[in-house]
Amino acid sequence: TADGDFIINGSKLWITNAGEANIFLVMANLDPSKGYKGITCFVVERGWEGFEVGKKEDKLGIRASSTCPLTFDNVRVPKENVLGEIGKGYKYAIEILNEGRIGIGAQMLGIAQGAFDSVMPYLRERKQFGQAIGDFQAVQHQVAQAAIDIEAARLLVYNAARKKMAGESFVKEAAMAKFYASQVAERVASQSIEWYGGVGFTKDMPAEKFYRDAKIGKIYEGTSNIQLQTIAKLVQKEYN
After folding, report:
1. How far apart are CA 2 and CA 24, in angstroms?
2. 2 pLDDT above the threshold of 90
3. 221 a catalytic residue
4. Would the CA dihedral through 8, 9, 15, 20 be positive or negative?
5. Distance of alpha carbon 218 from its chain centroid, rounded?
6. 145: enclosing H helix or E strand
7. What per-residue confidence (pLDDT) applies to 177?
8. Of 230, 187, 234, the residue nearest 210 (C-alpha)
9. Average pLDDT in the 182-211 region?
10. Residues 184 and 112 sit within 8 Å (Cβ to Cβ)
11. Are 210 and 184 in contact (CB under 8 A)?
């Protein structure tokens, strides 16, 4: 505008915690001809004229966290609400995503560990053919594999976090941690349902919630395919 303020129009889907948030960081392109170098970060507040938070999505999992669409209809943003430098929004967003992938890896690790911890006592309590189902060799092998997967995911997540805290390059490690931990969460949660048997397929046991919550790990903060692409590029760069 003539006085230096900005007008934002557009919409964005799948905004986590939008139902509760009062402050939003909005990436908007001031000059599309510059591509990603035109993207700038703005601080927008709930209740501003033209800014609307849509209905909460009815999701499969992580239902305690709201996910809503946002719409901007000639929303006036004061020039003082530019966060950082003009044109650096893409850089900020990527940095946040890279760090966030460690957090998602930790979340998926927690889901896998939670599913595992919930079902292990049941494997001792439930009896079939005169013995605990956890004493059958086939089940023992499955338990061992799940424990290995969880520990491997834990080490990947911890290593990525360690490198981040040490100020070292961590983008590849964060992508690996998120990719693998999301696989492990889904796999262990699914296996837990099977260990419970028929009752695991009901909401009387926690396994079904772990299973539903695990699915998002392969989707948000960059899909699993994006993680693979990131990892491949960085590995190839190491050998160039």
Report:
1. 24
2. no
3. yes
4. positive
5. 8
6. helix 137-165
7. 98
8. 187
9. 97
10. yes
11. no
What is the chain's alpha carbon radius of gyration, rounded to the nearest angstrom? 22
Helix, strand, coil in percent for the chain, rounding step 5? 60, 20, 25
pLDDT at 141 over 90: yes
Indicate the pLDDT class of residue 147, thresholds 50, 70 and 90.
very high
pLDDT of residue 127: 96
User: Tokens representing 83?
Assistant: 């966060």
CB burial string 138-148: b at 16+ within 10 A, e below: ebeebbeebee
Q: What tokens appear for 72 in the block? A: 């901007």
Please identify which of the residues 173, 186, 208, 221 carries the catalytic annotation.
221
Cβ–Cβ < 8 Å for 160, 176 = yes
pLDDT digits (tens, 9 = 90+) for 154-186: 999 999 999 999 999 999 999 999 999 999 999
What letter represents residue 168's amino acid?
E
Would you call 171 helix, strand, or coil by DSSP? helix
Q: Count how many residues are written for the chain.
A: 240
